């Protein structure tokens, strides 16, 4: 592999050097073929989330707390796709191979921030389901439009404010290793791997964020479903139980679709050094592409209100 001198030499703090993005190493001849499914996935991802947002926006009957949270999820997935489409498809199309430090830091800020945001939105959706099932008579009075707006602003602040210190800190590191990233997009962990400066503050601070946001959200989601399960099992009618479970299945699928890839990617960096570079790239792409691709499909199929309006939208376009 050809490496320019600026990819090998040490980079002083504050220097806006370039880093080599990694595609599927050794398969460069197949990139034109790889670009077809990846372009299709991005097109489906962007179209699917835009359609969910359009349906919720234009249907007054869907202006309810559950669908407000769903619109937050679709917007988060849409932004995740837009934040990575240039580098992922740029490599496959032969448009780019390198990214400068400032652009890399900016991209990593949005990727990590949007990951935290998706986790927070999923927690909000779990709270919505808990109130709807365990305290249905107070549902409307608890989840008012004003309260949902405050929850949304809290989610944005929680997701994008607290990650500023470790992301900005990346600008002031000395990068003295080969400037080759593990993925076709930028992650904070990747830049830390290339740094020769003291990274302890960055590592410990980021670990605290993962524990306080991702891990805490997962525990609270699990706890909410334990309470939901307890409430549902107390219902005498089997049909009512089935109906209540059906209202949660879309959210459970969205939680699994988000947490399984992010746990896999988190494990790959410290424990997957023996894996091939292609495996790293593949797991990274699954983490970036799978949740935004699957969430519109899950909610379009499993949520009756969205499913009905999607069919109506397609029939209007057809005729």
From TrEMBL:
<feature type="domain" description="G-protein coupled receptors family 1 profile">
    <location>
        <begin position="48"/>
        <end position="299"/>
    </location>
</feature>
<dbReference type="InterPro" id="IPR000725">
    <property type="entry name" value="Olfact_rcpt"/>
</dbReference>
<keyword id="KW-1133">Transmembrane helix</keyword>
<dbReference type="Pfam" id="PF13853">
    <property type="entry name" value="7tm_4"/>
</dbReference>
<dbReference type="InterPro" id="IPR017452">
    <property type="entry name" value="GPCR_Rhodpsn_7TM"/>
</dbReference>
<dbReference type="GO" id="GO:0004984">
    <property type="term" value="F:olfactory receptor activity"/>
</dbReference>
<keyword id="KW-0472">Membrane</keyword>
<keyword id="KW-0675">Receptor</keyword>
<feature type="transmembrane region" description="Helical">
    <location>
        <begin position="69"/>
        <end position="96"/>
    </location>
</feature>
<dbReference type="GO" id="GO:0004930">
    <property type="term" value="F:G protein-coupled receptor activity"/>
</dbReference>
<dbReference type="InterPro" id="IPR000276">
    <property type="entry name" value="GPCR_Rhodpsn"/>
</dbReference>
<keyword id="KW-0552">Olfaction</keyword>
<dbReference type="GO" id="GO:0005886">
    <property type="term" value="C:plasma membrane"/>
</dbReference>
<keyword id="KW-0716">Sensory transduction</keyword>
<feature type="transmembrane region" description="Helical">
    <location>
        <begin position="278"/>
        <end position="301"/>
    </location>
</feature>
<keyword id="KW-0807">Transducer</keyword>
<dbReference type="InterPro" id="IPR050402">
    <property type="entry name" value="OR51/52/56-like"/>
</dbReference>
<dbReference type="GO" id="GO:0071396">
    <property type="term" value="P:cellular response to lipid"/>
</dbReference>
<protein>
    <recommendedName>
        <fullName>Olfactory receptor</fullName>
    </recommendedName>
</protein>
<feature type="transmembrane region" description="Helical">
    <location>
        <begin position="204"/>
        <end position="228"/>
    </location>
</feature>
<keyword id="KW-0812">Transmembrane</keyword>
<feature type="transmembrane region" description="Helical">
    <location>
        <begin position="34"/>
        <end position="57"/>
    </location>
</feature>
<keyword id="KW-1003">Cell membrane</keyword>
<feature type="transmembrane region" description="Helical">
    <location>
        <begin position="249"/>
        <end position="272"/>
    </location>
</feature>
<comment type="similarity">
    <text>Belongs to the G-protein coupled receptor 1 family.</text>
</comment>
<feature type="transmembrane region" description="Helical">
    <location>
        <begin position="148"/>
        <end position="168"/>
    </location>
</feature>
<keyword id="KW-0297">G-protein coupled receptor</keyword>
